[in-house]
Write a structure and sequence with these properties.
Radius of gyration: 18 Å
Largest sheet: 8 strands, mixed
Order of helices and strands: HEHEEEHHEEHEHEHHHHEHEH
Strand content: 15-25%
Structural class: alpha/beta
Strand order of the largest sheet: 2-3-5-4-7-8-9-10
Helix content: 25-40%
Distance between the termini: 46 Å
Number of helices: 12
């Protein structure tokens, strides 16, 4: 079994775990850091947002276009912005503004140790980040666990979502092959792909919490519950569903998901496993661009 595929589905998105409680107000220095950004519009702007007790690390790529809402990227499990979107992000940012961030306990974002990882909480954190950035409406592109989170944003905070791109997203437990659940039940840090461990250790504020991060991320996947069909049907945002033909998500699940949305398109990428989905830049960029630029039905 491909260990890297298993960890990618975990979508552990890397960030350290530390005690960070919502009652603590950010200091003046932290506020300055959160607001300090590179003023060159061509450069990547970075910051930290005080959201739901976290200091969420975010990046803004490209130039704001009043005619288009920004595209928000939600990384996969075990990932950072770079490991999920490192190849496709530069191409997407040529034509629109991109906002990418790292979830609780992933990458540069420190954990709240006593708060479990959950898809619903990550969706609420996403909406709160957009509010902090004064973004009223956005398009969302979620990969793997990030796709599950993107859908939860559309369900729980529908007013902020214009369009959705869900790549390799799990919406029902039977959407993944049975072997995945067996592997997840026995997930160990020692089986986490070395490159993901190294990325975590490189950018996490508390690299000593790698094992805790792994275990919390694995628990979130193991405890995943089906998203109710009625909740999926309630999503009115046009949705592009993407899956690899050799993905850990069954193609049949992608088809079933496609049929649940009010306005949906479906793309099955040939010769593509889970790890290759967001590397199919030549296919995905024009596909996503055309989808996002198409007029929205009234």
């Amino acid at each position: 079994m491909n260990k890297r595929i298993v960890m990618q589905l975990l979508h552990l998105t890397t960030t350290v775990a530390i005690f960070t409680f919502g009652g603590a107000a950010p200091t003046a220095a932290q506020n300055a850091e959160q607001l300090a950004m590179n003023q060159n519009p061509q450069a990547v702007q970075t910051g930290y947002a005080p959201v739901n007790g976290l200091r969420i690390y975010f990046e803004i790529h490209g130039i704001k276009n009043p005619a288009q809402p920004p595209l928000v990227l939600l990384h996969g499990g075990g990932d950072t912005i770079n490991t999920s979107f490192g190849q496709i992000l530069p191409e997407l940012s040529r034509t629109r503004q991109i906002i990418a961030f790292e979830q609780q306990g992933y990458g540069h974002t420190a954990d709240i140790i006593e708060r479990p990882f959950s898809f619903e909480q990550s969706a609420d954190d996403t909406a709160a980040l957009l509010d902090y950035l004064h973004i009223e409406k956005a398009d969302l592109f979620g990969f793997s666990n990030g796709g599950t989170i993107a859908l939860q944003v559309a369900i729980r905070h529908s007013k902020v979502v214009r369009k959705l791109v869900l790549a390799s997203a799990l919406l029902k437990r039977d959407g993944a092959y049975p072997w995945l659940w067996d592997a997840m039940a026995n997930a160990k840090l020692e089986n986490m792909p070395q490159e993901l461990q190294e990325e975590y250790l490189k950018v996490a504020p508390h690299p000593e919490n790698l094992r805790l991060f792994h275990d919390k991320a694995a628990r979130r996947v193991l405890e995943f519950k089906d998203i109710p069909t009625d909740a999926i049907r309630s999503v009115s945002a046009p949705t592009l569903i993407v899956v690899g033909d050799a993905d850990v998500i069954r193609p049949e699940h992608a088809v079933e998901t496609f049929r649940l949305f009010q306005h949906a398109q479906l793309a099955v990428l040939p010769d593509t496993d889970h790890m290759k989905v967001t590397t199919r830049v030549d296919w995905l960029v024009p596909m996503i661009t055309d989808f996002l630029q198409a007029p929205t039905a009234k």
